[in-house]
Design goal:
seven-stranded mixed β-sheet, five-stranded parallel β-sheet, 3 domains, FAD/NAD(P)-binding domain, alpha/beta, 35% helix
């Protein structure tokens, strides 16, 4: 059987791309290496509790916001149950001697920052106005599909640090503005103004949880895919992309199956993707550039069950050991000489209800592959004892820090589990267990990876392209498919669906 398009990987980008093409009556197949879809979005279950690996919140889902438009087109809004965060307080930033509770809405943020940093009022106004201005340049981030491509590109040529310095922002103000860099994996000193702007516009737009978490979202996507005639197969790890005279012939999986197609969309890391080709189908300069690109850092995940009611922690917490946000990337949690480190804490049960009368606590910390590399060739769930001892040591470090931040956790933990960069690699095949794949840094965004490649019929999608995160990856799937279907045509299809 021959397919019009085969998508490698059932992450968010792969599933969204598959639905878009299936809606056009294309014969589409998604191949996923694991027994379930989702990549970093999938949930796992222990002791009757569900834990999220990478899904924590979704922005841009209020009426007439950008993700509400795209997910409406994908046909999944009626398949998920949204739970809003408190608009007056969705995140708390904790610094050594300062704490600030963040509201939704850029104008609300403006008022809050001026209240806390009155001496920075001019800089704050300039900054908020700049965020709003830059969003108008990004065609895919505006519901009217209007923008300015030249100015969009220019926004990636200046760093956010240089911009904040140019408007005279104080160090404390900069710390608050830059605090969320972990959620796209780029240290502030390497972050383009455009990247920061798009993320911040999304972050402060609106914030929602989803009942069922990442699994709820993925199940909705798979349901929509099947409703539109698409197919998905699991435990189908792609090992070869077969070509002949630089023409795509199909895909071979680890179990020896062959799937015929002339068109492939890869939702896995571009570096991993290129290794699937036996024939040299790209120019050496292109492959060298891709392989030389730096990936984002990895992370350590902490998962805890508490017997205490933690409902009052309905907001997410970002803890910082000092005001230098760049410094958190130099203090990975698994370094034994690091005692104080960045920590992201979320308690989903405070929003979506208790799990068997218990509270679920999930944490993320910056980590590095090198501290685990010696176990790289070992198998998931069957690694040596010294690996599990090391993981337990890091997990206890994370728990102790979490107790400092949330005292109610003390002596209330009934279950704990951790995930390492090796875990991340096992489930995503992302090099070095990278969180957000290719880094969207100043140097790399000057020549970013494009969806369309020079090999006819081969495309990239996913978080290595335009932007990581749920909003960025969703939009990237539409960019990928607009290269196939035509941008004007796809926008017209979206607009027609809104009217109906």
């Amino acid at each position: 059987m021959k397919y019009d398009y085969i998508i490698i990987g059932a992450g968010l980008g792969g599933l969204c791309s598959a639905i878009i093409l299936a809606k056009e009556k294309k014969k589409v197949l998604v191949l996923e290496q694991h027994s379930k879809a989702g990549g970093y979005l999938h949930s796992f279950y222990r002791k009757g509790h569900r834990f999220e690996t990478g899904f924590h919140f979704v922005p841009e889902l209020d009426k007439n916001q950008i993700l509400e438009m795209y997910w409406g087109y994908l046909g999944i809004l009626d398949k998920i149950d949204l739970v809003p965060y408190n608009k007056k307080h969705f995140h708390t930033l904790i610094f050594p001697d300062f704490k600030i509770d963040l509201p939704s809405g850029l104008d609300n943020l403006r008022d809050l920052l001026i209240k806390n940093f009155p001496q920075d009022e001019k800089a704050i106004n300039l900054y908020i106005d700049k965020l709003k201005e830059l969003k108008r340049y990004f065609i895919y981030f505006n519901r009217d599909h209007k923008g300015d491509l030249d100015k969009e590109h220019q926004s990636f040529e200046i760093g956010i640090i240089d911009y904040l310095d140019s408007i005279g922002a104080s160090q404390r103000l900069k710390s608050v503005i830059l605090a969320h860099s972990f959620l796209y994996g780029v240290p502030p000193k390497e972050t383009p103004l455009g990247t920061h702007s798009i993320f911040s516009n999304a972050l402060y737009s609106s914030t929602y949880d989803i009942k069922g978490g990442g699994d709820g979202l993925i199940n909705a996507l798979i349901s929509s895919l099947k409703e539109n005639g698409g197919e998905i197969l699991f435990k189908k790890r792609v090992v070869k992309i077969k070509t002949e005279n630089k023409k795509i012939k199909g895909i071979e999986t680890e179990d020896g199956d062959f799937f015929e197609t002339e068109n492939i969309i890869s939702d896995i890391n571009p570096q991993t993707s290129l290794k699937l080709f036996e024939e040299e189908v790209f120019r050496p300069a292109f492959t060298t550039r891709i392989y030389d690109m730096e990936n984002t850092t990895s992370h350590f995940g902490g998962y805890f069950v508490s017997s205490n009611d933690l409902s009052k922690y309905y907001y997410d917490i970002l803890y910082f050991p000092d005001y230098n946000i760049d410094a958190i990337y130099e203090k990975p949690v698994s370094d034994r000489n690091v005692s104080d480190f960045f920590l992201y804490i979320t308690i989903p049960t405070s929003r979506i209800g208790h799990s068997n009368n218990k509270s679920i606590v999930e944490t993320l910390s910056i980590d590095k592959w090198e501290n685990y590399a010696k176990w790289h060739d070992t198998k998931f769930s069957k690694r040596p004892e010294d690996y599990y001892k090391f993981k337990e040591e890091i997990l206890n470090k994370v728990l102790n820090k979490s107790i400092e931040i949330i005292p109610e956790l003390n002596e209330s933990i009934e279950y704990k589990e951790g995930s390492t960069p090796l875990t991340n690699y096992h489930f995503t095949l992302s090099p070095s267990g990278s969180m957000y794949a290719i880094k969207h840094s100043l140097s790399q965004m000057r020549a970013p990876i494009r969806a369309r490649t020079k090999l006819e019929g081969f495309y990239f999608t996913g978080q290595s392209l335009i932007f990581p995160g749920i909003v960025g990856v969703t939009i990237t799937s539409f960019v990928t498919c607009s290269d196939i279907l035509g941008q004007e045509y796809l926008f017209k299809r979206i607009d027609e669906s809104i009217k109906n």
